[in-house]
């Protein structure tokens, strides 16, 4: 069963599809197989399900089905004319695809709606993100959940920025402000490829059915702004 539960995280011209991972290497195209041939069954299942979802998204966008192999840095190589992003988490694979004529890049991440252990908070969050860490209150479980959301937003941003900058960024390299109405803003705090420190992006998050999710899309018209 293909779901569309994360579609509200993106502008309406994106196709966003999700499904539980299922084994089936035969769903992969020859140029995709090398990435997971020696991998454990669970990894093969999530990789194959994501590619199957990508082709379903291509069908819904009205474009010909094509392969989505991985680069040496694990970045998906989107067919000409498309931008996309993939996420996997416990029991779920998600793919988002849009048209490259309108969109420069897109990123998605989905995480289990569970608190992050307190020992990791300082690594994943900045001191100046405290207002977002206490979004759902001061109790340890609420703070831990909010840190999971910040992590999710930063991973979605990472996937969106990487094809444009080809730069590894750490969790202290961006500052996130989360709003209870489902919006977030993110500020890049260091230069990354052609992007300058101070660049701001906005996106949407959701908390539903046991998952935290974040989506971010960069319009072609905004790509050149500093
Ligand atoms: C790349 C990364 C974000 C992937 O996250 P993950 O939790 O391992 O796995 P997810 O299931 O969420 O996403 C995996 C998908 O991400 C995509 N991905 C991996 N590397 C990528 C890259 N460099 N650029 C864009 N997408 C990438 C792939 O599609 C992958 O799925 P696939 O291998 O089946 O194609 C993570 O491994 C990582 O390196 N994080 C550290 C960097 C970071 O997030 N910094 C924060 C900056 S503010």
Structure description:
It is a single chain. This protein is α+β, with helices and mostly antiparallel strands and 226 residues long. The chain folds into two domains: 7-101, 4'-phosphopantetheinyl transferase domain (Ribosomal Protein L22, Chain A, Alpha-Beta Complex); 108-223, Ribosomal Protein L22, Chain A (Alpha-Beta Complex). Helix content is 28%, strand content 27%. The protein has six helices and eight strands. It has helices at residues 30-33, 41-61, 121-124, 130-133, 140-165, 220-223, and strands at 15-19, 82-89, 92-99, 103-112, 174-178, 183-188, 200-208, 211-219. The protein has a five-stranded antiparallel sheet. A three-stranded antiparallel sheet has the order 1-3-2, with helices on one face. The chain is globular and about 50 Å long. 40% of the residues are buried. The structure holds coenzyme A. The site of coenzyme A has 23 residues, from helix 2, strand 2 and helix 5.
